[in-house]
Amino acid sequence: xxxxxxxxxxxxxxxxxxxxxxxxxxxxxxxxxxxxxxxxxxxxxxxxxxxxxxxxxxxxxxxxxxxxxxxxxxxxxxxxxxxxxxxxxxxxxxxxxxxxxxxxxxxxxxxxxxxxxxxxxxxxxxxxxxxxxxxxxxxxxxxxxxxxxxxxxxxxxxxxxxxxxxxxxxxxxxxxxxxxxxxxxxxxxxxxxxxxx
Length: 197
Description:
Layout: E1 10-11, E2 14-15, H1 21-26, E3 31-32, E4 35-36, H2 43-52, H3 66-84, H4 91-101, E5 105-113, E6 116-124, H5 129-141, E7 150-152, E8 161-163, H6 176-196
Antiparallel strand pairs: 1-2, 3-4, 5-6, 7-8
Helix pairs in contact: 4-5
């Protein structure tokens, strides 16, 4: 968890545009040309997604199961809606997140940066690596989130969600390069058609 993040909205064709690992995890079921895909639907896909999410999976780690990850994803999907609506989370969700992170923790590490000492917080995650990292990220998210910044993409055909970190809090699209451009093209065509009529 102290690794440098990999940049980019799309990595090997997978979306990483949610602003937080747990939201990127929710976005592992994109709809492409009307077909829902599951980017963590098998061990190979899960490994590719975890690598692009910059998660290191130790060889001796307790294995994540696809069924458990799908269950966690569904639970967090419901939690996203609850949080965005300003509603409390179900006790069952809180208990599940606490169970997943119970054996994990943080420790302080003193490092040097520019000749000065800096204190880093390093997470030690114990349990199935993907599920634990996602649960840990969700728990940290709860410390200081603004529900007004939790959004679904404005494209009605898109299933992506995100946390708007922009200064003006006016982000509408999961990605300007995909859904934002589609909207611009649709508006342009509509203007052209009405000008001809």
